[in-house]
């Protein structure tokens, strides 16, 4: 049986299941309790599980993550919320110098099963510091897993897998997709957390994306089909580690690749994908790997964000350029 629910509701149900299944799971963050989070992702959880399991914290991101590290050292599995993407940077020191390195520093004796939830990306008309895409900063750090679901089903299952992981997971939630609904089979057997998925078969070119851009790539594939172009859409799901085998398999079939993400193209995750796939698929590629993303500039005011973010026309232009080779 599958239930239809919004992506935000799927995360809520996943957190509820984790709280019910394991008394060591805790939820912490600013306004996650009585308010239920600014996006209502944790709505009702404090009411049902109490203030000792769903904890409203001070406005102190470094303290939130630092406390979660201490709790994880004592055997708990904290799930912390960073209220908005741009607020994570006060906690960046704790995440990079402590959370990511403790396992290696202890020669494998210490595990830190902490999930850091971060609503990220644009598309909601927010003010400054509320629409960042900092995933590459965390993917660059050894010791962290970095994932981002694009749909309700993945949101439900990937959160379960992240909480069960003994390694720290940075869980990027595409806030513009919080209200998109999809089928969620809560009794299914999920695939591996870091495995990419082909969400649309194609033969002429591969579009690779994750999080908020997967839906856009599906719309691009629909538009291209009207012109007789058959595009494959690959949902990467994980930014670190990256499933290069699935990307390679798709590119060996289509011989062309366009990578799409909201984060700036400069030093973005698409650059690593382009470099690695060029190495792996040099004799299969019929065009260079192209990237579509944000510009190397501070995120603009809300009135300009549609000019900054990848859109249908910009991705279609990259498709046309690739197919023109």
UniProtKB/TrEMBL annotation:
Pfam families: Transket_pyr (PF02779), Transketolase_C (PF02780). InterPro entries: THDP-binding, Transketo_C/PFOR_II, Transketolase-like_Pyr-bd, Transketolase_C. SMART domains: Transket_pyr (SM00861). It comes from Streptomyces tibetensis. Residues 5-180 form the Transketolase-like pyrimidine-binding domain. This is Alpha-ketoacid dehydrogenase subunit beta. Its EC number is 1.2.4.-. Its cofactor is thiamine diphosphate. Keywords: Oxidoreductase, Thiamine pyrophosphate. It is an enzyme of class 1 (oxidoreductase). One of its GO terms (molecular function) is oxidoreductase activity.
């Amino acid at each position: 049986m599958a239930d239809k629910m919004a992506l935000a509701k799927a995360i809520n149900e996943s957190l509820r299941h984790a709280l019910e299944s394991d008394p060591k799971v805790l939820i912490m963050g600013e306004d996650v309790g009585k308010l239920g989070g600014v996006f209502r992702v944790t709505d009702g959880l404090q009411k049902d599980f109490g203030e000792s399991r769903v904890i409203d914290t001070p406005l102190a991101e470094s303290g939130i993550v630092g406390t979660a590290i201490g709790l994880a050292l004592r055997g708990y599995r904290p799930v912390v919320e960073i209220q908005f993407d741009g607020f994570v940077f006060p906690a960046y020191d704790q995440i990079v110098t402590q959370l990511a390195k403790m396992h290696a520093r202890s020669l494998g004796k210490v595990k830190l099963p902490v999930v850091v939830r971060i609503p990220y990306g644009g598309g909601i008309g927010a003010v400054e510091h509320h629409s960042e895409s900092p995933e590459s900063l965390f993917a660059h750090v050894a010791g962290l897993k970095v994932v981002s679901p694009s749909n309700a089903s993945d949101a439900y299952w990937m959160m379960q897998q992240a909480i069960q992981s003994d390694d720290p997971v940075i869980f990027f939630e595409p806030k513009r997709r919080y209200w998109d609904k999809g089928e969620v089979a809560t009794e299914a057997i999920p695939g591996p957390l870091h495995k990419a998925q082909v969400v649309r078969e194609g033969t002429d070119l591969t579009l690779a994306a994750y999080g908020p851009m997967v839906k856009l790539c599906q719309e691009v594939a629909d538009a291209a089909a009207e012109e007789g172009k058959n595009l494959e859409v690959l949902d990467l799901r994980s930014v670190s580690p990256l499933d290069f085998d699935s990307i390679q398999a798709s590119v060996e079939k289509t011989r062309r690749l366009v990578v799409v993400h909201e984060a700036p193209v400069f030093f973005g995750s698409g650059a690593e994908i382009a470099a690695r796939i060029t190495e792996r698929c040099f004799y299969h590629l019929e065009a260079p790997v192209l990237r579509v993303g944000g510009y190397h500039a501070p995120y603009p005011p809300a009135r300009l964000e549609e000019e900054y973010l990848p859109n249908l026309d910009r991705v279609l232009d990259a498709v046309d350029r690739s197919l023109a080779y």
